[in-house]
Sequence to fold (89 residues):
Amino acid sequence: MTPESVVGFAQEAIKVTILVAMPMLGLGLIVGLVVSVFQAVTQIQEMTLTFVPKILVVLLGLLFFSNWMLQQLIDFGRNCITQIPLYIR
Fold:
C-alpha cells in the first residue's frame, strides 16, 4: 500500500462518516436552536426541555434516513472489500 492509497482510503472513510452522521446532527442542531429560542422567549430553563425533543427528532430522523445511511455504509464496505487485492500489492 502506498501512502497515497492510505490517505485516499482515510479521506473516503471520513467523507462517508460525515455524510452518514450529517442528517442526525443537522436535525439535532435545528431542534436545539428552536428549543433555545423558545426557552429564551418564555424564560423557562428546564433541562429536560432541551433533551427530550432532540432525542425524539433524532430517533424519527433515524427511522426516516436509516435506509439511505445503511446503503451508504454498504457501498463503502463493498468498495473496501473489492479493493483488497489492490491494498495487498
Notes: The mean pLDDT is 91. Residues 3-42 form the longest helix (40 residues). Helices lie at 3-42, 48-82, 84-88.
